[in-house]
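--- STAGE predict ---
source: upstream dedup step, 1 unique chain passed
mode: sequence only
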Amino acid sequence: MQKMQLFGMSAEKGRWLLIPLGATVLLCLGTVYSWSIFRKPLETLLDINATESLLPFTVLLVFYAIFMPITGFYINRFGSRVVTAVGGGIMGLGYILSSLNGNLQMLTFTYGVITGVGVGIAYGVPLAVVAQWFPDQKGVAVGLTVIGFGLSPLITAPLAKSLIDSYGVRQTFVILGIAFTVIILAIATLLKTPPKDWKPAGLNSEVSAQRNTSINTQTPILQTPAFYGLWLCYTLGTFSGLAAIGISSPLAQEIIKLDEATAASTVSLFAVFNAVGRLFFGWLTDRFSPKLGAIVSYTLVLIASLIMLKAGAGAVASYLVAFSLFYFSFGGWLAIAPTTTLILFSAADYAKNYGIVFTAYGAGALGGTLLAGRIRDIFGSYTVFFYPTTALAILGIILAVFMLKRSYSNSTASPVN
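--- STAGE serialize ---
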């Protein structure tokens, strides 16, 4: 086994520093989950409705999902440092350009397209780097790293609210854009992948093989039934979660009758559940099975949807419980999907494979956020939105039972339960 050092210590110890570094990059990128804080000020500034104020967020999620898989094919060619720096720079530029005086179409292009492209380029790199350094603890390592994206609103939501109150929404875009660019560029210089033949001490070949039983690595991912099961489940898992993220603050003000500051503070609370969900479901999926992780997630969405169908003015506890469950289960999918990709398919092709799987995120984002905004404009309330989330949670449980398998033995090509 090749002995090497990382950050001035043994690779087995130094690799753990890559987790907080990667999580910090994702924390900056995850500011997009604080979009609900920007919506009300932008609706007033640009004189737009609920559907229109969700449009930049929706477009960002779509471009994020489009460019994430594209980037997966170039990480090995250009290196993790270059790809992270390019993504961070483009994201920061999108924020800064969003400060320009303009209309909804301009904001949709600068924030939705440009920022979305930057987030998509940079997002997968920390996950790919950590996944390669932790073949022995992939679920926990990926879950800890991706926590940064979910935890972001805990920090960035109150920060954005404070900046908007002090400087206005346009100047807030500039401040955030500059800060994120500097942070991501600095961390990009420290990211690196291990040599192809590197394994942590104590991980022998037999254990490694047992932990990486997967579908025939020679079979392209798009030719495997497991991919389509995972893709459909991931789409349903992100549908309600991304919509909940986009509507949480305005819903709290309109239905629960919370004031603007309190509604904004709840977004920070929910971010904790988003983050913890990633760690919990990463462990659950890796320890037991992707099927169990998906079923638990959908069950929580079902419970949350039923709670919100009965929530009204003053139902603060119901709102807090339901949206904590929405964020927790959605955060879980950002660990279930990458961990399942590592379990079911070749770890060597993880960046490309997860990029393809990640297109489901874009499909869920497009469907969930557009439907939520349209329902609000048609019915005058977000409550009706929780009928389709109830139905889709039930559908998700059914799909998980019949379409998600833990892994497949290369020698027998039969399911391993």
